[in-house]
Amino acid sequence: MTTRLVAARVTSLSFTEALISTLGRRLPRLVIERVSPELDGGRYPVKRTVGAAIEVGADIYKDGHDQILARILYRADEESGWRAAPLTYDYAPDRWHGSFVADRVGRWQFTIEAWPAHFHSWRLDLEKRLEAGQDVRGELLEGARLLARAAERLGAGSRQVAELLASRVGDARLELEERLRLALSEDALACVPGPLDPAEATRYDWVLDVVVDAAVAARGAWYELFPRSQARVPGAHGTFRDTERRLPELAELGFDVLYLPPIHPIGTTHRKGKNNAPSAEPGDVGSPWGIGSELGGHTAVHPELGTLEDFDHLVAAAAAHGMAIALDFALQCSPDHPWVREHPEWFFVRPDGSIRYAENPPKKYEDIYPLDFWCDERDALWRACRDVLLHWVAHGVTIFRVDNPHTKPFAFWQWVIAEVQREHPETVFLAEAFTRPNRMRGLAKLGFSQSYTYFAWKNSKEELTEYLTELTRTEMVEYYRPNFFANTPDILHEYLQRGGRSAFRIRLLLAATLSPAYGIYSGYELCENVPLHEGSEEYLDSEKYQLRPRDWDAPGNIKSDIALINRIRREHPALAELANLELCETSSEQIFAYAKHTLGDRLIVAVNLDPHEAHDAMVSVPLQALGLDAERPFGVEDLLTGERYVWRGSDNYVRLDPAVRVAHLLLVSGQPAPEQSSR
Amino acid sequence: MTTRLVAARVTSLSFTEALISTLGRRLPRLVIERVSPELDGGRYPVKRTVGAAIEVGADIYKDGHDQILARILYRADEESGWRAAPLTYDYAPDRWHGSFVADRVGRWQFTIEAWPAHFHSWRLDLEKRLEAGQDVRGELLEGARLLARAAERLGAGSRQVAELLASRVGDARLELEERLRLALSEDALACVPGPLDPAEATRYDWVLDVVVDAAVAARGAWYELFPRSQARVPGAHGTFRDTERRLPELAELGFDVLYLPPIHPIGTTHRKGKNNAPSAEPGDVGSPWGIGSELGGHTAVHPELGTLEDFDHLVAAAAAHGMAIALDFALQCSPDHPWVREHPEWFFVRPDGSIRYAENPPKKYEDIYPLDFWCDERDALWRACRDVLLHWVAHGVTIFRVDNPHTKPFAFWQWVIAEVQREHPETVFLAEAFTRPNRMRGLAKLGFSQSYTYFAWKNSKEELTEYLTELTRTEMVEYYRPNFFANTPDILHEYLQRGGRSAFRIRLLLAATLSPAYGIYSGYELCENVPLHEGSEEYLDSEKYQLRPRDWDAPGNIKSDIALINRIRREHPALAELANLELCETSSEQIFAYAKHTLGDRLIVAVNLDPHEAHDAMVSVPLQALGLDAERPFGVEDLLTGERYVWRGSDNYVRLDPAVRVAHLLLVSGQPAPEQSSR
Question: What's the pTM?
Answer without folding.
Answer: 0.92
